[in-house]
Amino acid sequence: MKKMYFIAIYADQKTIDEVRIFKEDLALHFGNSKALSNDAHITLAPPFSREIELEEDIHLAFQKIDTSIAPFEINLNGFGSFPNPKHPVLFIKPEENENLKQLYFNVKEKFSFERYSFYPHITVGYRDLNYDNFLKAWDIYKDKNYKTKFLVYKILLLRHDGKWVSINEKKLSQE
Predict the structure, then answer these.
(1) What are the strands of the beta sheet with 154-160, ordered from one edge?
(2) Residues 75-91 as b or e (16 or more Cβ within 10 Å = b)
(3) Separation of alpha carbons 30 and 131, rounded Å
(4) SS3 (DSSP) at 1
(5) At the top level of CATH, which class does the domain 2-171 belong to?
(6) Other Cβ atoms closer than 10 A to 73
(7) How confident is the model over 57-70, as pLDDT tens digits?
């Protein structure tokens, strides 16, 4: 049996709660409820599928990711979008961050994924957000002010079991 997995950084609970308010607004006013099914995170390795019998290999590769980076802050600042008519996305933008880029490259070293360019973001609206509603939402969110920051001190390996659940974590450290 195949399962889906991905690797991500999750925001702290305060940020997750704040982002959820934006997601609830999109669900209520723009017909976009799918984004409510996942807490605020930045994807480091996009979802991939593997036989569950091979999960131990995923755990071994995950533990080999170089996390010898001191815990660092991510500053979130405003909203952005991928205005693709078929799959529009509304998101919160993190500011440029060298530690985040390094962490991504360290993950990519152990998990090869093609056709994925790293554009870090925290998704607010996607999947069941149609293009007309996206345009209406973007008109409101493009100038909306939202700033916060959170500390990154670990990365998570998640598996989809009806919903995404953390099955492993690896802390950042300078050692």
Answers:
(1) 41-51, 2-10, 154-160, 164-171
(2) ebeebbbeeeeeebbbb
(3) 10
(4) coil
(5) alpha beta
(6) 11
(7) 999 999 999 999 99
